[in-house]
Specification:
The complex is a heterodimer of chains A (312) and B (395).
Chain A: H1 3-10, H2 32-44, E1 48-52, H3 56-61, E2 73-75, H4 81-97, E3 107-113, H5 114-119, H6 122-131, E4 136-141, H7 182-188, E5 193-197, H8 202-214, E6 219-224, H9 228-231, H10 238-247, E7 254-257, E8 260-263, H11 273-277, H12 288-310
Parallel strand pairs in A: 1-2, 1-3, 3-4, 4-6, 5-6
Antiparallel strand pairs in A: 5-7, 7-8
Helix pairs in contact in A: 2-8, 4-6
Chain B: E1 5-10, H1 11-21, E2 26-28, H2 36-47, E3 54-56, H3 61-73, E4 78-82, H4 84-89, H5 91-100, E5 105-110, H6 124-127, E6 135-138, H7 142-157, E7 165-170, E8 178-183, H8 186-192, E9 209-210, H9 219-231, H10 233-248, E10 255-258, E11 265-269, H11 273-286, E12 291-296, E13 298-300, H12 304-310, E14 316-321, H13 331-341, E15 348-353, H14 363-381, E16 389-390
Parallel strand pairs in B: 2-3, 2-4, 4-5, 5-7, 6-7, 11-12, 11-14, 14-15, 15-16
Antiparallel strand pairs in B: 1-8, 6-13, 10-12
Helix pairs in contact in B: 1-2, 1-7, 3-5, 7-10, 11-14
The chains are: A alpha/beta (312), B alpha/beta (395).
The complex binds thiamine diphosphate, iron/sulfur cluster and magnesium ion.
Iron/sulfur cluster (SF4) is lined by residues 27-28, 31, 33, 56, 60, 142, 146, 227-230 of chain A.
Chain lengths: 312, 395
């Protein structure tokens, strides 16, 4: 291949070697959240302010007197990222308008886990999206409250074992409810940009972060984040799981730009969900019937999504 | 020549005027009776171009305070206000600006807590937020509501202070009552509270990490530093109030005395009931009784020294609480007792609980308290227990 061609293939994928999320943090080995944060920070660059909810990320990155953050970062509470980011954005807006500071295009970003987003922080986030603040919100979805010890959230998938949805003699499936569809809730706010991503598709993830930053108004990014500790899987298969979840159609990668759906990767045929489920201890109690039920649900949801993509 | 003028304003509008003159950058608030007129008036001012600020119409008080935290950390001058259930809902967030040293200014239009639902005044909401680490100041009338709000910005933003400050104004008694308020010239106020630069602002050119995680090896040091600095705000608060007095002609102090010269009995109040208590003291003085009044203006940090000084010669202290700590009595009375215990064990302190949920305390109510307190001290000498008593309540 000619060198020019090689560069064309390579250069768009060329990513910064800067690590604004510095190494030395205390995440578990194989943590998918830490991996995702690292990629997100590479795409975000330096001109950002990050607001972080309580949760694993905050705990493993900010143990006093150390910090992993090379960009301005603030944590206050668990459920208020949407509101804190609204305040920061409004402060910049007012101060720029009043001539107190220059407009340097600072990007305002919220980080929270699935609990901090789809449960306790939903109200504050909904308010921020509805009011139309200019910010990017990243939900790092590891499908449970991991920081407090693997308790279920509304984002925990059907059938998963957690410490508050345990597998017992009477209750034998673990989580009895289906995962809340948080990206669709964001879409329902009619914000200009909603997307799903997985750090196992790093270029796709970074492209989406960039689009979310550039679009004026609220942008919501839902990032699948493997948690080997909570999911009872070996840390070396984090990336594999993050790929399988997409290939099985359990967590499709898509974007909704101004209401228009686009699938980011499509497969002629989805892999069976069994391949994904069997690799994780949190699903090991599931019977064939449970797995069939999950398979049917995944196919139905995937079909529904494809109709939305086709419908446009 | 400065243009000062007396205007008829309800307490809420007086607060709004102070906020407008403070030229705040961000307001974030959620409506609740009896605070609503403040937010409505501010929204109007912005809509009419009289104030250039972002008004974040948040979806809850929790978010109201959270947005203030964000805005303040980004260097803005901010304002919020609430009451009762609203303060309770933002309770968790209130500890953040005091621990992260963000000079937010807030006003509380004091109101009772549910249940049963009551929109009327008492101090239950104040007592629920005693320990949040904010500077807390009580106003007794609308002029004070204005003055103390202006001063609150100057105090909170002082580089040696950098603590949030809350002005307490009794719901309805002040928030909805129109009185003459002397408004200073805007320029004068602008000079008194000049633009400020928050020293640890969230800025990509100078990255800081705020709100980190504090394990046991560092948490107590962080708390001690906070307490030491909080105590140090007292002289600064007095300094600002003195300077306000020099400029505008009205000065304030942490503990304010009325008819206290040679008083052997002192009433103690916080908030608007102080004005009724003054009338009661006048009437009792006319009857030849040595009754005076002490009003706590600064509630936090508690003005131990000034308070002990104010009551050093009295024999009986009669404390009114507009709140109830179930199973304990009046919270102000408990605090006052603990403030005096080391210095004046022999002083008789009798507490009353009254004015809950907007029940009025008339002048006679204060006279009753004084008389009843004298009786109870005697009864106590014969061995009767001196528990808290609720006044003005049907049996
Ligand atoms: C108001 C409040 N309730 C509960 C907690 C305890 N808590 C801290 S983090 C957390 C779970 C976080 O879960 P998630 O948002 O999914 O983030 P993760 O740790 O999984 O990344 C909980 C329950 C808290 N800090 N604050
Ligand atoms: S518990 Fe899970 S999410 Fe939390 S640090 Fe460990 S691997 Fe990461
Ligand atoms: Mg989680």
């Amino acid at each position: 291949m000619a060198q020019e061609q090689e560069e064309k293939l390579f250069l768009p994928r060329f990513i910064t070697t800067d690590e604004n999320f510095a190494p030395g943090h205390r995440a578990c080995i194989g943590c998918g959240e830490a991996l995702a944060v690292r990629h997100v920070c590479k795409a975000l660059g330096n001109n950002v302010i990050i607001v972080n909810a309580t949760g694993c990320i905050e705990i493993f990155s900010s143990l006093l007197p150390l910090t992993s953050w090379r960009v301005p970062w603030i944590h206050t509470l668990f459920e208020n990222v949407g509101a804190v980011v609204s305040g920061i954005e409004s402060a910049y807006k007012a101060r720029i308008r009043k001539g107190k500071i220059e407009d340097r295009g600072v990007v305002f970003v919220g980080f929270a886990g699935d609990g901090g987003t789809s449960d306790i922080g939903l109200q504050a986030l909904s308010g921020a999206m509805e009011r139309g603040h200019n910010f990017l919100y990243c939900c790092f979805d590891n499908e449970a409250y991991m920081n407090t010890g693997i308790q279920r959230s509304s984002s925990t998938p059907y059938g998963a074992w957690t410490t508050t949805a345990p597998v017992g003699k009477k209750s034998i499936v673990g989580q009895m409810t289906w995962k809340k569809n948080m990206p669709e809730i964001a879409v329902a706010h009619r914000i200009p940009y909603v997307a799903t991503a997985s750090p196992s598709f790093p270029f796709d993830l970074m492209d989406k972060v960039k689009r979310g930053m550039e679009i004026e108004g609220p942008a919501y990014l839902h990032i699948f984040s493997v948690c080997p500790t909570g999911w009872r899987c070996p840390p070396e298969i984090t990336v594999e799981i993050g790929r399988l979840v997409v290939e099985t159609g359990i967590f499709p990668l898509y974007e909704v730009i101004n209401g228009e759906y686009h699938l980011s990767v499509d497969f002629p045929e989805l892999k069976p969900v069994r391949e994904y489920l069997k690799k994780q201890g949190r699903f090991r109690h599931l019977t064939e019937k449970d797995i069939e039920r999950i398979q049917a649900r995944v196919e139905e949801e995937y079909q529904r999504l494809k109709e939305k993509v086709g419908g446009k | 020549m400065t243009k000062r003028r007396i205007v008829g304003l309800e307490g809420s509008f007086a607060i709004a005027e102070a906020v407008r003159m403070a030229n705040v950058d961000v307001i974030s608030a959620y409506p609740i009776t009896p605070q609503t007129h403040i937010v409505e008036r501010l929204a109007e001012m912005i809509a009419d171009g009289e104030l250039d600020a972002e008004f974040i119409c948040v979806e809850s008080e929790h978010s109201a305070m959270s947005a203030c935290v964000g805005a303040s950390a980004a260097g803005a001058r901010v304002f919020t206000c609430s009451a009762s259930q609203g303060l309770e809902l933002m309770h968790e967030v209130l500890y953040i600006p005091s621990s992260m040293r963000l000079p937010i200014v807030a006003v509380a239009a004091n109101r009772a807590l549910s249940a049963p639902l009551s929109v009327w005044c008492d101090h239950s909401d104040v007592m629920a937020i005693r320990d949040i680490g904010w500077i807390q100041i009580f106003a007794e009338n609308n002029q004070q509501a204005f003055d103390l709000t202006v001063c609150a910005y100057r105090i909170a933003e002082d580089k040696e202070v950098l603590f949030p400050a809350m002005v307490h104004m009794d719901g309805f008694y002040l928030s909805h009552v129109t009185e003459g308020v002397m408004l200073p010239d805007e320029e004068e106020v602008a000079q008194f509270i000049p633009d400020y630069e928050y020293p640890f602002v969230l800025d990509p050119d100078n990255p800081v990490s705020m709100g980190c995680y504090g394990p046991p090896f560092i948490y107590p040091e962080a708390k001690k530093a906070q307490e030491v600095d909080f105590e140090k705000t007292k002289p600064k608060i007095q300094e600002v109030w003195n300077e306000f007095g020099d400029t505008f002609g009205r000065s304030y102090s942490p503990v304010e005395e009325y008819q206290m010269e040679d008083a052997s009995i002192a009433l103690l109040t916080m908030g608007s009931s102080g004005e009724t208590a003054m009338l009661a003291a006048d009437e009792m003085r006319a009857e030849g009784r040595e009754v005076g009044l002490v009003r706590l203006r600064l509630w936090r940090p508690f003005p131990f020294k000034e308070f002990r000084e104010a009551v050093k010669d009295v024999e009986l202290l009669v404390v009114l609480d507009r709140a109830l700590s179930f199973g304990m009595g009046g919270p102000v009375c408990s605090e006052v007792k603990s403030a005096l215990y080391e210095k004046r064990k022999e002083l008789n302190i009798v507490g009353f609980i009254g004015g809950l949920g907007g029940r009025d305390i008339p002048i006679d109510g204060f006279k009753y308290m004084v008389n009843r307190a004298v009786e109870r001290v005697k009864a106590a000498e014969w061995g009767e227990e001196m528990g808290p008593e609720m006044i003005g309540v049907r049996e």
